[in-house]
Amino acid sequence: MKKGRIEAFSDGVIAIIITIMVLELKVPHAAEFKNLLALWPVFLSYILSFIYVGIYWNNHHHLFVVVDRINGRVLWANMHLLFWLSMVPFATAWMGENHFAPAPVALYGFVLLMNGIAYSILTRSLIKHHGNDSVLAKAVGSGFKGTLSVASYALAIGCSFFSVWISGAFYVFVALMWLIPDKRIEKTLE
Question: Whole-model pTM above 0.85?
């Protein structure tokens, strides 16, 4: 099967996810800047989640640049990833609305953890379909960043019940780690 439809569908779902997140930002009924201050947890959680969804969109794009075909396994692995990405707006809203309380911060971490696992499954499915000597397999290599991300999410979930700030630091750390441009696929294509 060709990859065009999976890319178009994924782009559409990710665009809807971002739209849902921004629609969750409720405008204060008062027209003074001080009323925005009460919304800082909502804005902060939105910014972090927007960055995460952007990271997944960017990396998803890079995955599909180096493959030329897909199969049913890849389709379902991609749907699995999109399912967990679609949970980001819910976890984001709950965390922001509850001012980073422990349970919402833990759920947010769980959703991020599942996104990381789902992305890893998608990557492995693509590599299995294209072979261990494929451009993608060479570009991905050991997947150290992915493994470190999943471990960080797991630690953050555990930390959320005694320090939401430590959990938040883990979430920011992983986001920053992925914001640094990953040139493996681009270098492999050269």
Answer: yes
